[in-house]
């Protein structure tokens, strides 16, 4: 039996299990057609959505997240932010930190319903406590921007340091601002410069990357002879934290 025949048999077996009501098989079928890993399995977002919906309605947390994502991105159907928010919340309550982050983002911006900054902060916090660095940065920005009832600059700093240690580029950009403006104590141009250098290396092209580059160059203009030293420090910081995913699988730092 060749590999193609084996793959067809596996898919048929998976479909039979899904049709019999097995939740994991339903989700796996959705994933198979959403992110096909083999050339003989076509991308089929309608089939993916069909199986995600069946699994989500029966309580499968990752299927609920995937369905929320498809509703938000208008995949295999019209964009439905109300449904996206509802499915993200269902998955968030089951502990999926990615869903908690997306729910927080929608609550903060008022997508799919009224803006609820207090609830957004709660969900960002829950995701951050499970190791979600982007949620940690968002929550830090809410503290710094006084978007919540009791903003805490020290908590913001801790969240940003956590996210920065996980190589979130925006966290480094904001930490550069925090150190430059003395929001974490005395202003410190050296610390700010290191963070800006890291941010430049991590951020994708766009306004944030451009701002990090400008801030970096403005500080280096004062002492251009230090360019190589700071850029090397930034590269070393990134290299030391880029470990294989399997080394940290299942490990989520706890934030207090």
The span between the termini is 55 Å
Kindly state the number of beta strands: 0
Structural class: mainly alpha
What is the average per-residue confidence, as pLDDT, rounded to a whole number? Answer: 92
Biggest sheet record: none
Which radius of gyration do the C-alpha atoms yield? 22 Å
User: What order do the helices and strands follow?
Assistant: HHHHHHHHHHHHH
Helix content: 55-70%
Uncertain stretches of 5 or more adjacent residues: 247-256
Strand content: under 5%
What is the global morphology? elongated
How large is the count of helical segments? 13
Please provide a written account of the structure.
It is built from 13 helices and no strands. The chain is mostly helical and 256 residues long. The protein has a domain of 76 residues. α4 packs antiparallel against α5 and α11 runs antiparallel to α12. The chain is elongated and about 65 Å long.
Task: Draw up the topology in text.
Elements (H helix, E strand, L loop, with lengths): L2 H17 L3 H12 L10 H13 L3 H13 L7 H13 L3 H13 L7 H13 L3 H12 L8 H13 L3 H12 L8 H14 L4 H14 L6 H15 L15
């Amino acid at each position: 039996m060749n590999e193609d025949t084996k793959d067809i048999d596996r898919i048929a077996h998976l479909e039979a299990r899904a049709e019999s009501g097995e939740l994991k098989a339903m989700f796996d079928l959705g994933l198979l057609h959403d992110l096909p890993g083999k050339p003989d399995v076509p991308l089929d977002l309608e089939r993916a959505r069909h199986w995600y919906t069946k699994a989500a309605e029966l309580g499968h947390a990752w299927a609920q997240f995937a369905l929320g994502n498809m509703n938000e991105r208008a995949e295999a159907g019209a964009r439905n932010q109300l449904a996206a928010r509802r499915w993200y919340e269902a998955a968030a309550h089951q502990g999926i930190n990615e869903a908690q982050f997306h729910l927080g983002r929608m609550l903060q911006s008022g997508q799919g319903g009224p803006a609820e900054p207090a609830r957004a902060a709660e969900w960002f916090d829950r995701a951050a406590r499970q190791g979600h660095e982007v949620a940690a940065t968002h929550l830090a920005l809410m503290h710094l921007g006084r978007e919540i009832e009791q903003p805490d600059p020290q908590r913001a700093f801790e969240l940003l340091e956590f996210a920065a240690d996980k190589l979130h580029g925006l966290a480094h950009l904001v930490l550069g601002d925090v150190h430059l403006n003395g929001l974490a104590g005395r202003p410190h141009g050296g610390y700010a410069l290191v963070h800006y250098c890291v941010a430049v290396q991590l951020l994708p092209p766009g306004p944030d990357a451009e701002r990090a580059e400008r801030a970096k160059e403005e500080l280096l203009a004062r002492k251009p002879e230090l360019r190589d030293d700071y850029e090397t420090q930034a590269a070393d910081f990134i290299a030391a934290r880029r470990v294989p995913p399997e080394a940290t699988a299942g490990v989520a730092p706890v934030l207090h």
